[in-house]
Design brief:
It is built from three helices and five strands, in the order H-H-E-E-E-H-E-E. It is α+β, with helices and mostly antiparallel strands and 171 residues long. The protein has a five-stranded antiparallel β-sheet with strand order 1-2-3-4-5. The two termini are 30 Å apart.
Length: 171
């Protein structure tokens, strides 16, 4: 319960959208005259990442699990770590509105997931945020939403990490 009432996440999104519209109007932002939905959709870039591993443990643990590990817990078996689907729409001078959406499924979700209604043991809405480019100076871009990590040296996708395994700090 939120303030004695039921929690309604859609109510927050609607109010956020109204406030964002007021901010755009205040800054003098307008959609360029020739902009269409088709142009917006053509600017969306889909992405997919498949992350699997096989960890060989020469100690051959009886229970089949690697000791002192966070993500790569299974010994001598393949793991379906993460399948991530993403949509990205960057902002530019012709299109001031954009977004980023990352959704993943796999074994890493049980460790790296956020604790929200859009996450479970095998799936996670990793991040979703909107972008708005305001006509201030050379263009001021505002971002708001749910971010996976605003700063850090390790990320959920092992493809983008410097090391093959993740540290205890990350897990």
């Amino acid at each position: 319960s939120f303030g004695g009432r039921g929690y309604n996440p859609m109510g927050w999104f609607v109010m956020g959208g109204i406030d964002l519209a007021r901010l755009v109007d205040w800054a003098g932002g307008r959609f360029p005259a020739g902009t269409s939905i088709g142009q917006f959709v053509r600017g969306i870039t889909p992405g997919i990442i498949l992350d699997t591993t096989y960890t060989l443990n020469l100690g051959a643990p009886r229970n089949g699990e690697n000791a002192l590990r966070i993500f790569d817990t299974r010994a001598d078996r393949p793991m379906f770590n993460y399948l991530e689907l993403s949509l990205d729409r960057p902002v530019d001078a012709e299109n001031p509105f954009g977004f980023r959406f990352d959704f993943g499924v796999g074994e890493n979700s049980r460790i790296a997931r956020s604790r929200s209604s859009f996450s479970g043991d095998w799936y996670d809405l990793q991040q979703i945020y909107a972008r708005l480019r305001l006509p201030i100076g050379n263009g001021l871009t505002l971002r708001g939403g749910k971010f996976a990590s605003p700063i850090g040296s390790e990320v959920i996708e092992s493809l983008n990490n410097n090391n093959i395994s993740t540290s205890w700090q990350f897990g």
